[in-house]
Design goal:
The chain is of the alpha+beta class and about 220 residues long. The chain is built from five helices and ten strands, in the order βααβββαααββββββ. It has a five-stranded antiparallel sheet. Strand 2 and strand 3 form a beta hairpin.
Length: about 220
Amino acid sequence: MSTILPGAAASVEVFGGLSDASLHPEEAAALGRVSDRRRCEFSVGRTCARRALARIGVPATPILSGPNREPLWPTGVVGSITHCPDYCAAVVALRTQITTVGIDAELHAPLPRGVLNIVATKEEQQSLSALPSIDTCWDRVLFSAKESVYKAWFQIAGSWLGFDDAIVRIDPQRRRFTADLVVATPAIFGRSMTEFEGRFLISDGLILTAVSIGV
């Protein structure tokens, strides 16, 4: 994950389980009654996040969830957490260095039948059909890119985007993507956030995507 993130961001990733993953009492209480799988996933994500925070000099602290299940980061910090089977990653950065960041991880496999029609516009589907298809599940790359964009957007706008609110274009040669937002966007430091740029990596059976905006 670190290879597709800016140097000012600190990330921690885990393949498989994490035997010493744990929750703060406040996190455990807020999580409530959930399945063992969900509790394990949540604890690994929070443990990765705290280890990433330590790398930027932020003390360990409970990372609770907001009303939309978003992580509530310490003051002055932006971050993102992602999970998929046998993988978890967290990234954080000081807000003085990065305005927002979003990451996502997906298994490198085609989307289930019918899902692409839900998550992609006709324009995006046409663009995907023109990409070289050998050994790459571009539909899943598109889905992951949108997830990263949505997470980055939420931290600056406080609301979620719909699947049609961001039009993603993939550059397979540069391993990058661009998302054009078709909704009203907030101005950050005098800049209108109408376009997000991100990077992707396909490795070890996973698709990793990341979006960040500097200050």
